[in-house]
Amino acid sequence: MLGDIADRISRQLNRGTEVILAALMVALVLDVWIGVVDRYFFHWQLPWPEVLARYLMIWAAMLAVSSGIARREHIGLTAVLLNLPAPLRRAMLIGIDLMTFTLFFYVLWFGIGFAESGAKRQAMILGATLQPFYAAIPTAAALACVQVVLVMVRDMGRQLDLPDTPSEEGAGA
After folding, report:
1. Where do the Tripartite ATP-independent periplasmic transporters DctQ component domain residues begin and end (predicted)?
2. Which of 134, 138, 135, 125 minimizes the C-alpha distance to 52?
3. Which of 26, 123, 133, 157 ranks highest by number of CB atoms within 10 Å?
């Protein structure tokens, strides 16, 4: 019951994140296209496409982390997990989830100060403070923390794409 609720929330949150990621990627492609057209055809010498592309890419990469967590496609110890008995595997997965949560909470905690420091810095080319761009760090870390908790509750220490018993193929690896 609780796992189903966590799964539903995780899926909805991930769907919203992926819509934002798609919009960021469209904006990134258009921005780079404008930069290329400017450089090779019109010679407008626009100063902002390269800078904007950098910040769009940072936002997209940071937000994509939570999508990977929601799908359990983040870095894992699959080779080790395949050779462990189910109870030990469950304990290890819960431990990995807790360490992942701790890491992203750490990034969130210090990322807030980092984003606040961006309010004092100017992106001269864009004519804005760097705070909205620096906010990618704590925003993505907070989203990752939420997804880790939802995935941990959803899976209860089981990685759904792994068999319940150690495989003979994994034993030789």
Report:
1. 32-156
2. 125
3. 133
Considering only CA atoms, which of 143, 105, 125 is closest in space to residue 55? 125
Q: What are the residue ranges spanned by the domains of the chain?
A: 2-172
The alpha carbon torsion through 166, 170, 171, 173 (nearest 10 deg) reads -160
Could you count the other beta carbons within 10 Å of the beta carbon of residue 172? 7
Higher pLDDT, 73 or 116: 116
Q: Which of 136, 12, 26 shows the shortest CA–CA distance to 67?
A: 12
Question: Any residues with CB less than 8 A from the CB of 116 and at least 6 apart, and which?
Answer: 131
Mean pLDDT value across residues 38-46: 86
Beta bridge partners of 123: 128
Residue 76 phi, psi dihedral angles, 5° rounding? -135, 175
Evaluate whether 24 touches 56 at the Cβ level (below 8 Å): yes
What token pair was written down for 27?
Answer: 């904006």
**Higher-confidence residue: 28 or 166?**
28
Give the dihedral of Cα atoms 68, 69, 72, 75; nearest 10 deg. 80
The rounded distance, in Å, linking the Cα atoms of 158 and 86 is: 8
Number of CB atoms found within 10 A of residue 24's CB: 19
